[in-house]
Specification:
Oligomer: single chain
CATH architecture: Orthogonal Bundle
Strand content: under 5%
Distance between the termini: 20 Å
CATH superfamily: Winged helix-like DNA-binding domain superfamily/Winged helix DNA-binding domain
Helix content: 25-40%
Strand order of the largest sheet: 1-2
Shape: globular
Number of strands: 2
CATH class: Mainly Alpha
CATH topology: Arc Repressor Mutant, subunit A
Low-confidence stretches: none
Mean pLDDT: 88
Radius of gyration: 13 Å
Length: 91
């Protein structure tokens, strides 16, 4: 997450693919990445608000979805294709 540039986004799936490559594995679960991201105790220093679902879903953020949106807006992220999910376990 520390490598995600200011004002840019990545997905849980993209992080999972990168970790799988580094660990010489065929694949890694994006849900596992989501679980790890969700346990980030210093979310302002390590920018987990820049991680979104592959479909543009603003899934889970320990500080709340509203805070995630405000942080992304502060960074002038283009949020045109992002949305708040209406159901799921990571709300």
């Amino acid at each position: 997450m520390c490598k995600i540039p200011y004002g840019k986004l990545t997905t849980y799936g993209d992080i999972a693919k990168e970790i799988a490559i580094k660990m010489n594995k065929e694949n890694m679960s994006s849900q596992a990445v989501g679980g790890a991201v969700g346990h980030n105790p210093i979310s302002i220093i390590i920018p987990c608000h820049r991680v979104v679902g592959s479909n543009g879903s603003l899934t889970g953020y320990a500080g709340g979805i509203d805070t995630k949106i405000k942080l992304l807006e502060l960074e002038n992220v283009d949020m045109t294709n992002l949305f708040i999910p209406t159901k799921g376990t990571a709300l």
